[in-house]
Amino acid sequence: MSQLLCSLHHQALELSRQYLVCEKELLEILVKIESNKVYLQQGYASLTEYSQKALGLSRDVSWNLVTIVHKSKAIPELRHAVQMGVLPLSKARQIAPHLTKENSEKFIALAQAMPREKLQEALAKECPKIPSIEERARVINATQAQLSLCLPKEVMDKIRRAQDRVSESQKKWVGLAETLEQVVEFYLQHKDPREKAKRHEVRKSKAAVSVKQSRRTVRESDAVARNPELNLRPFNKPITKIQTKARVAIPAGIKHEVIIKNVHQCTYQDPRTQLRCERERFLHFHHKVPVAMGGTNALENLTLLCSAHHRLEHYQSSG
Question: Which end of the chain is more exposed for a tag (fewer CB within 10 A), N or C?
């Protein structure tokens, strides 16, 4: 081997050692950042967001580190094995979902002794209830996507039953893809907050038309009866409740209007990029002016925030 090739090999070995040391040191720093909630002080909603946006780590590397940080709270042995250099981060991430206090010693030993493929097979045998196939969803083309996941047999049986019902209703054989489409559409129609809000808007518009017609009927009857004591104001007078110091629940109608106004999406805007958060899951209703400071349930005082940014908002407002 030439001197140049030997030099390149030794440089690679040295950089590899430095990389592994830095990886372990970064894990330790992230543990401290998580325990002291430094990411909130820096304006990030979660440790994952901080790792990707502030530190510039890839999604996979960030996910590996954050998973181990969180799991290490319950299983300190996992973090210790990574610190000692006997367990790579990739394998630590692989066994983390399966670890309990009872099996941690066994699984950490397996991870040290086996390559990743064999380790996955061993985990699948030891924990058959945990899916051995990683969930994946990827876009194939402009109109199609591919979904791969592992389901309990009972759930698959229910999907087959749903497939039979959909096939009967359409009087033809229907595949699993179309069955899932029908099931998801049915669920969203009944459970999706956006669909509920749309129905609320339709009911409100119909109620307004009905009230308008009722007033016209009353005016016509009044003209016939010529009763000057008839008072039409109650039809237009909103029902009010006596406000107390206790926190008042947000009315369902107001919630629907907030959802329509904000398109059922977190409204947090990143001050660095000016981009709006894209989360539509685990959304909370947030009072811009806190209730404790006199804030009301008026539409203009309410917005939507995902759970992470809601926590960040309260952390920042509390100083």
Answer: C
